[in-house]
Amino acid sequence: MAENTQPRRRVDAPVEEKQFDERMLHIDRVARVVKGGRRFRFRALVAVGDHKGKIGIGSAKGADVTSAVTKATDVAKKNIVKVNLYKGTLPHEAESKVSGARIMIKPASAGTGLIAGGVVRTVLEIAGVKNVLSKSFGSSNRTNMAYATVAALESLVSSKDWITNNQPKKETAKKD
Fold this sequence. Notes:
This protein is α+β, with helices and mostly antiparallel strands and 176 residues long. The protein has one domain (21-159): 2-Layer Sandwich (Ribosomal Protein S5, domain 2), CATH 3.30.230.10. It is built from three helices and eight strands, in the order E-E-E-H-E-E-E-E-H-E-H. It starts with 20 loop residues before the first strand and ends in a 22-residue tail after the last helix.
């Protein structure tokens, strides 16, 4: 009987497709002063989304960059919110303020693209918004801008839920 000289291959479990797109928005090296000097850690800001209207932001610290990013990703997945989108854009304009950062987002016609910069652009991209105009006022702190963008997206009301004044009126009987 001939022996098989090739090593046995381990049957791996099927590779799962990632449900969410994870993007690192910012990494900071932070320090705390102790008796012997400074202790350095890392703070990561991560956004996760499915490009179909779900978005979450998370921030966490860790001893090294990978642990900070992993922790921040877990926090972001726990804080996912559903966003009301309308044909690849927003149903109406929205504005939000978190600390000193103020973000304004407006719907745009098809073909406009994402007119946004930095963190706001990444958050809108991951949320699945295709055409939008945005402007940031005040602080350029990335953490506050990311949370303000999510707050603005969260405040959007679906076009189905709008209350309009052109509702049909009830007819009253005319008196002769």
